[in-house]
Amino acid sequence: MQVEYLAVSLLLLGGVKSPEPQVIHQGIYDEAGCQQWKKNMTEMKTGFIDPGTGRPILNRQFICQPVDLDDLQKMLDRARKG
């Protein structure tokens, strides 16, 4: 079992009738690399407006999710065949 960590940014955007979540995949890292990415992102000062949408950012979270690369490869292989 080969485990790496999927880095994901979660943004909660406002500016419309109801808040809307936005998920941004940032890459796959080893555990130490993902924790460093998470620390850097958390400490980084960002604006209150999402540059991609122009909408206000109500909340943001940074997640390091463990991923079994062997299982991921099997899923990708099945998707290609199907």
Could you list some keywords that capture this structure?
alpha+beta; three-stranded antiparallel beta sheet; flat
Descriptive report:
The protein is built from two helices and three strands. It has 82 residues and is of the alpha+beta class. Strands 2-1-3 form a three-stranded antiparallel beta sheet. A hairpin with a 6-residue loop joins strand 1 and strand 2. The mean pLDDT is 91.
**What is the share of helical residues?**
25-40%
Strand order of the largest sheet: 2-1-3
Low-confidence stretches: none
Large-scale geometry: flat
Strand-residue fraction?
A: 35-45%
What average pLDDT do the residues reach? 91
Total count of helical runs of at least 4 residues: 2
Rg, rounded, reads 16 Å
Task: Give the biggest sheet.
Answer: 3 strands, antiparallel
Q: In sequence order, what are the helices and strands, one letter per element?
A: EEHEH
Which structural class do the helices and strands define?
A: alpha+beta
**Count of DSSP strands:** 3
Task: Quote the distance from N terminus to C terminus.
Answer: 25 Å
Give a short synopsis of this structure:
The chain is an alpha+beta fold.
Write the layout of secondary structure elements.
Elements: E1 3-13, E2 20-29, H1 31-43, E3 57-68, H2 69-81
Antiparallel strand pairs: 1-2, 1-3
